[in-house]
């Protein structure tokens, strides 16, 4: 029985434990151990907060598009990103994360070039697109990048994302598409009276959804408006202070008036809700990745000349437009977003060409024997279009640097490749030029 008393476990006593801890600096070792464990778990083991769709999401050889249709469900994922997502927390000692940028309409012509530049800058980019006119091919080269995420989503539905900046480009921009579906074009850029008014938020689609998102997450919002807000202008060149001459009931008005309302909403959110906004009024832009048959004059002429079809000139061909290479526009958009000024800013190339002059440049670039065919002009086709870019030059330090005769061959090479599958002339799908 005596031996029993010697084998009894020592009784637990709090004062003894505290004394034990303080002896020989054990407490210091415990605290250092806890800190190291916390740091390691933050960096390595913190689970990805993005929901996963299924196991085959990790098949990186096929094209993946996440889908999202309603708030707050967000079925999206980042390729290869699982072990890099820190759930928004930045562990001590690690450098701050890069800018998180949302580009709506990012798989389209302008959007995909913008994404290229943002990715090259080191940003984390989320593209939201319903692929109405955009092409997944335009973004294929980013799919394996952990900083890139693509979500199939229609902006008429709300979506909740965490970003610092929103470039709002989503819109069926070409005449073929917005005339094909004018109501959709209209509601995509302005508020829709779908289920009746309840409050400011529920009455909105498209632009208003994105403004609502900007407000909710305190992001800076940039609207890509258009020179079409000037309609058939009575002032030439067009200055931002000009209010325009738009037919509110014409075939083009779904686009023109839609964008005008989008500008109004953007300014209302800015004035009324203190949202940081930027407005760009984009003039005719061309370059690789444009839709082949979208009814825009440059893409029409180039595709027709390549296919040995006559170039269709509407009216007498004396109406003028100015043509800006896409890399110039992207530079302007980024300067506007990063700058201090709300705008609106005209972003376009002031070089003015008649349609016949443009046809001549296309002939010189592709085929000197290409024919021209005249057709009756379309309704409300503006007679003149030329941006006054003084404001952008002074306040953004921006001006276009790529002349038409240099930019057009890059577009032709891309079109040739897409029409004939001919890669001999090299891949011109990247923006080769940059602006100052
Ligand atoms: N390219 C130009 O010359 C020009 C001129 C003036 C203004 N803009 C403006 O610039 C922006 C981009 O134009 P673009 O030339 O790249 O056109 P685009 O048609 O190539 O790109 C538009 C993109 O928006 C997407 N989209 C359309 N509706 C959507 C919706 N409801 N939800 C999600 N995505 C949607 C399309 O799929 C496409 O990827 C547009 O807002 C357009 O109005 C362009």
Automatic annotation (TrEMBL):
The keyword Transmembrane applies. One of its GO terms (biological process) is D-xylose metabolic process. Residues 102-409 form the NAD(P)-binding domain. Pfam families: GDP_Man_Dehyd. GO terms for molecular function: NAD+ binding; UDP-glucuronate decarboxylase activity. The chain crosses the membrane at residues 27-46. InterPro entries: NAD(P)-bd_dom (IPR016040), NAD(P)-bd_dom_sf (IPR036291), UXS-like (IPR044516). Its EC number is 4.1.1.35. Its cofactor is NAD(+). Keywords: Decarboxylase, Golgi apparatus, Lyase, Membrane, NAD, Transmembrane, Transmembrane helix. Pathway: Nucleotide-sugar biosynthesis; UDP-alpha-D-xylose biosynthesis; UDP-alpha-D-xylose from UDP-alpha-D-glucuronate: step 1/1. Belongs to the NAD(P)-dependent epimerase/dehydratase family. UDP-glucuronic acid decarboxylase subfamily. Catalyzes the NAD-dependent decarboxylation of UDP-glucuronic acid to UDP-xylose. Necessary for the biosynthesis of the core tetrasaccharide in glycosaminoglycan biosynthesis. This is UDP-glucuronate decarboxylase. It comes from Centaurea solstitialis (yellow star-thistle).
